[in-house]
């Protein structure tokens, strides 16, 4: 799907405020409400917008431990990766996991009640015999920046010739 400048403004607006009204969105992007709503629906149906979420500040709810973990698997067969990823995807405390190139296979972000709860989670993963060869733990001591959004206008150049 080719995006134009209006599509990018819509994406930026709903990413900044998922609760924006149809009218406010239309005004913000410079369209009348119906065409704006149709474009929004098109972006949703194309899977560019995957959902709308509230962004929580976990430490205001309870004291937590945020941990980054580098994980290397012993074997690198497709089945090993698939099995590991299936298990990781089902654990709610693992809030993000990336398969990466370089010296490790995965980097995971874990949010746990405390360090003891984190270690119990790791011990459980090791007990499941997922093929984890080694892991390195990094305790997050301070969040400097954590954005969930995409810098839409910085990453995408709209097709200037396409008019809406």
From TrEMBL:
Keywords: DNA-binding, Plasmid, Transcription, Transcription regulation. One of its GO terms (cellular component) is cytosol. It holds the Pfam family AsnC_trans_reg. GO terms for molecular function: sequence-specific DNA binding. Residues 3-64 form the HTH asnC-type domain. InterPro entries: ArsR-like_HTH, AsnC-type_HTH_dom, Dimeric_a/b-barrel, Tscrpt_reg_AsnC-like, Tscrpt_reg_AsnC/Lrp_C, Tscrpt_reg_HTH_AsnC-type_CS, WH-like_DNA-bd_sf, WH_DNA-bd_sf. The keyword Transcription applies. SUPFAM superfamilies: Dimeric alpha+beta barrel, Winged helix' DNA-binding domain. GO terms for biological process: regulation of DNA-templated transcription; response to amino acid. This is Transcriptional regulator, AsnC family. The lineage of its organism: Bacteria, Pseudomonadati, Pseudomonadota, Alphaproteobacteria, Hyphomicrobiales.
